[in-house]
Write a structure and sequence with these properties.
heterodimer; A: alpha+beta; Coagulation Factor XIII, Chain A, domain 1; 2 domains; six-stranded antiparallel β-sheet; six-stranded mixed β-sheet; 6 helices; 17 strands; globular; B: mainly alpha; 14 helices; 0% strand; elongated
Chain lengths: 316, 242
């Protein structure tokens, strides 16, 4: 339902036609009145590192800058566009920090329209102590000023101010938040199997935390086939298999009360960092849709997604 | 002030100790708490405890001994003054359950128990969610956040716009963040709600719910007239439907 809209929104085809150029983010921080750059890896999920090993988002904060340009902005208007001819479109960056449950928007520092197109520049600083864990940044188009007169053929277009009419790009900065790390323990024993999963007695997965106390995957390095020892992945295919089965079992346990699975899928009434909330994040971050229509379809789609996610992590 | 922390496991261990007491031991413990005697003391929190306790006792006199919303509000306002945002206490700290667990379980167990003496479903003797377990239910944490999200620049102004609310407003404000708290929007929303009083009991819940639905497609800050215009329409939309 989150993706159901009753008005046209920006499509990839329209984006191409308008000639959107979305510059890469530049991330910096200040330390003792000097500015230092951060290295980034990844595309949709970005991990940041500091060559000087000073920076932590909690203590130094983070500054972001970005440029978005549109070569033919006029194509966004009219019956084949997303806003009425007389309307005005704004561009902003929506930010969401899930760990601390806060959100807001960043307006461009400059927004210049010339004969050669429109260029928006963003510069924004999150002060120390304000952000932790993760930061989602979405460049969006919104209706800045509605059209006083709606012309013929434009009746289907949204004409309400403040409404989002397109998403240009979304990235997630991962500052090693709680939910990005799956609780895994090594347990070396000849008397135990290669791997097993531990669940505590969950009272309410919408509230119970997604932590080692409630969920833990145990890997036994006693066996040569053990897919991971420390940070090192030794058997990639087996790890994919184990992780897919693990996520499957978590979804099955959540589904002991089907309302909980529904709440997980739809993000309804979930406490921050709860089991259901983290599983919702997982669903959202899967590059391909998860198929909940049957158990075998779910397991298959979990395999596909986890392989892609782990491969992307490997490339980084 | 340097805030101390208590992990979930450590808090659970303390509460389990209380839960496992026999009736005589537990009555003895709660008798101490009723006399505001916490047995264990942390000198680094002495001033903090004394000021919060004084507020609690004064509020209790004001409410004729009733554990109600007015008492919550007085304690919340005091807490917000005692733990101001700054160098020692950031939004990250305010979200850190371990800091609140230390305060609830170690420093102020007496007033936490007196406010919520009944165990919730699944508890044995102590209301675990109000003490340490529910990230949006730890009593003192919810009060700090309620005041923070409603802050109008001064204690008096904040008290004035919140004084006619009820406990349910605290829960609804804290527990319906949608994608996340928009601080200035929440402060505007609470003010608008107060300025358009009186309301029916369910209005505030309806307003927070409608706000979440609207925020899925509209960014309040970006509409003409900004957040003030947005909250005025939001509150009117709920109240006019009745």
């Amino acid at each position: 339902m989150n993706n159901l809209y009753f008005y046209p929104k920006l499509t990839d085809a329209l984006k191409d036609k308008c000639g959107f150029t979305v510059g890469k983010y530049v991330f910096t921080y200040s330390f003792q009145d000097k500015s230092f750059g951060l290295k980034q890896k990844g595309t949709s999920t970005i991990k940041l590192s500091d060559p000087l090993e000073i920076w932590k988002v909690e203590t130094e904060g983070i500054s972001i800058s970005k440029t978005v340009s549109i070569a033919y902005p006029h194509l966004l208007f009219g019956p084949d566009g997303i806003a009425c001819t007389d309307a005005a479109i704004g561009i902003c960056i929506m930010w969401t920090n899930k760990t601390l449950t806060q959100t807001g928007c960043i307006l461009p520092e400059s927004d210049i329209e010339t004969d050669t197109g429109r260029v928006c520049s963003f510069n924004y600083t999150f002060d120390p102590g304000l952000v932790q864990g993760d930061l989602e940044l979405s460049v969006i188009l919104y209706l800045k000023k509605k059209a006083d007169s709606v012309q013929s053929g434009e009746e289907k277009l949204n004409n309400e101010e403040g409404v989002t009419i397109g998403e240009v790009e979304t990235v997630v900065l991962d500052f090693n938040s709680v939910y990005m790390e799956f609780p895994i323990e090594e347990y070396n024993s000849p008397n135990e199997p290669l791997w097993w999963l531990y669940f505590s007695q969950w009272e309410d997965p919408k509230v119970d935390l997604f932590d080692r106390e409630n969920i833990c995957l145990y890997l036994n390095p006693h066996y040569a086939a053990c897919p991971m020892v420390g940070e090192e992945i030794k058997n990639f295919d087996l790890l994919v298999d184990i992780m897919a089965t693990t996520y499957m079992m978590i979804f099955q346990k959540i589904n002991e009360d089907p309302e909980d699975l529904k709440a997980t899928q739809q993000n309804l009434g979930l406490e921050n960092n709860s089991i259901c909330s983290i599983m919702h994040q997982f669903i959202e971050s899967c590059p391909e849709p998860l198929h909940f229509e049957s158990q075998e379809a779910l397991l298959k789609s979990l395999h596909i997604n986890i392989r892609k996610m782990l491969e992307e992590g490997d490339d980084q | 002030m340097r805030y101390k922390r208590m992990s979930l496991n450590d808090a659970k261990a303390v509460i389990t100790q209380y839960d496992n007491m026999n009736d005589i031991e537990f009555t003895n413990l709660t008798d101490h708490w009723k006399a505001y005697d916490t047995i264990e003391n942390d000198p680094s929190y002495s001033e903090f405890r004394n000021l919060l306790l004084e507020t609690f006792q004064n509020a209790l006199a004001e409410t004729d001994g009733k554990m109600n919303y007015l008492l919550d509000l007085r304690v919340g306002l005091c807490l917000y003054q005692l733990m101001p945002l700054g160098k020692d206490f950031s939004i990250i700290s305010a979200n850190d359950d371990d800091i609140w667990r230390y305060i609830s379980v170690r420093i102020m167990p007496d007033i936490t128990y007196l406010r919520y003496p009944d165990p919730a479903k699944g508890d044995i003797r102590i209301n675990s969610k109000r003490f340490y377990r529910g990230t949006r239910r730890i009593w003192l944490k919810t009060l700090w956040w309620y005041v923070h999200l409603s802050w109008q620049g001064s204690e008096k102004k904040t008290f004035d716009i919140l004084k006619n609310n009820a406990t349910d407003n605290i829960n609804k404000l804290i527990e319906t963040p949608g994608k996340g708290y928009r601080l200035s929007l929440y402060r505007n929303m609470v003010r608008e709600y107060a300025e358009t009083a009186p309301h029916k009991a369910k209005d505030f819940a309806a307003i927070t719910k409608l706000n979440n639905v609207k925020c899925m497609s509209v960014e309040p800050e970006l509409i003409a007239g900004g957040e003030k215009q947005y909250v005025s329409q939001l509150v009117a939309e709920v109240t006019q439907k009745e």
